[in-house]
Amino acid sequence: MLPGALHEVLTPITFTPATPAPARTTATTPTPAAPAPATPLRTPTGPQLLPSAPLLRGVAELAAGIGARQAFEFLLGRHLDANPRQYTLTPAELAGLMADLAGPARTALDPACGTGALLRAVDPRPGQRLYAQDSAPELAALSALRLALHNRATVRAAAGDTLRADAHPGLRADVVLCHPPFNERNWGHDELAYDPRWEYGFPARTESELAWVQHALARLKDGGTAVLLMPPAAASRRSGRRIRADLLRRGALRAVVALPVGAAPPYNIPLHLWVLRRPDRVPATPEVLLVDTGRFAGEGRGGPDWEAVRETVTDAWRAFTRAGRLAERPGLARSVPVIELLDDDVDLAPARRLPPAVADGAEQLTRVRERLGETLRLTADLTPPPADPAPPARWPLTTVGELARGGALVMRTGGNGGHARVPVLTDHDVLAGTAPSGTLPESEEEAVLTEPGDVVVPVLGGGAVARVIDEATGGAALGRNLVLLRPDRTALDPWFLAGFLRGTANNRQASSYASTATRLDVRRLHLPRLPLDEQRRYGARFRALEEFERALRQASRLGEQLVRGMYDGLTDGTVAPG
Length: 578
Fold this sequence. Notes:
The protein is α/β, with parallel strands linked by helices. The protein has helices at residues 2-10, 53-66, 68-82, 92-102, 117-120, 137-150, 208-218, 241-249, 306-323, 338-341, 362-382, 400-406, 427-432, 494-501, 504-509, 532-572, and strands at 14-15, 107-110, 129-134, 154-159, 173-178, 220-230, 253-258, 272-277, 287-292, 333-337, 397-399, 409-413, 424-425, 455-458, 467-468, 477-478, 482-487, 511-512, 519-520, 526-528. It has 3 domains: 1-17 and 93-225, Rossmann fold (3-Layer(aba) Sandwich); 231-357, Vaccinia Virus protein VP39 (Rossmann fold), CATH 3.40.50; 396-529, Alpha-Beta Complex (Adenine-n6-DNA-methyltransferase TaqI, Chain A, domain 2), CATH 3.90.220. It contains 16 helices and 20 strands. It holds the Pfam family N6_Mtase.
């Protein structure tokens, strides 16, 4: 019965656009075609696995307990976690920043919607209309249902190639948000040579991103705002300089924001945000806002400092939109006259146009050096003593699952609920040993909150890691892909538990390699059965090792800060080589 019920719900808000029209041979603007009529979703091909009765019963119980929206978000998160290479996701923090830059909207469009993250970040308003399109029918259907569950806006989601077969040709939206596919050669260059959307120039075959920029502008009303996530090459490739120049001359491009490394996939590249407005009038002395947030890149796998990124970008954008210009903020932001950008390259990369940040002075570098020296001395003091040889242990063993069934510990999984005011401990935080840095969608369900003495274990990645929650981290919500173990202190020592869970052989025998990522079954991890006093003796040694590991991380961070500051000081003249 489930497929039939879904068909009844999705068909009114999801449709497949008609076959694209042949390429036009004149540059005249035709009368916009009416949107394609609603037609049933295409039936997926290939072998189908029918949901089992226990699975459907579990989904029904989940929805009854936490609500349809929370149940859908939970199931969608599990689906995306199980297929990490199949989808290019837009992180929720980035989607929120893009929606902030775009501002409020009664009509909003995402022409490459994916799972609907960008439109979901738009603030709900009475009478709001959300339009989405994606080339993958299953993603269009997911977005339609997700947006319909999230708020009471009217949702229209289409399946089809946006550039070749636009499903919303007559739309003039207040806001367009888009995370387009990057570096596509087969975007329709040969078929769309005379398309009326190319008001700022016909994009080269290698400039698919500039085709998406012009599509977004064509779907805006006068004065409407578009925010697109762009690869940094789009700001400087010579093949796109004429289009960039025309966007500047006509006042369409308003801001370029360089994001930190790790903001969105591909995570090794500092992506850009382009903020555009469909010109209703050209300023007398137009300027463009350039912002560089590269300094807020996170350490290790912790991700960027999103709070600092959002505050820096939104503050600069609001000040710029109020006054039409922005005074220099060294290393962070400035507004640049358009005439200054219209050179042979029309290079829009913020790092090339911003004044350098004030380098760490000699006094601050001296303080960093002193802290590094103290940390290195501490590291030497904490170095473990030589290991005492011992015959192989023959302990009686138990498993985490058996201890949970016997009441010696409580086992909880994370990621099912959250609240905007509660920091979230992510698997990246656990792996990197950093403070809670994540967020979860708001939910009516109670989040799993950590307490001092809990042991948190990541289940993805194949690493032997377990973290004991301290006073500073206690109270954070448990994120996805984490399992929390709360031991009964009268039966289990937390440091003993965490130490034995980190054993390489222990993790190897409890891991599954059936999917693209290694997954740890925490219930199968082994522990020796030892008296509590013996547990505490092992726990003290494990705790000392953890303190040594933490000191090594701190020394690494301080060393990197000192080296970077010395290079910057020597190269900008604020530090003498002597």
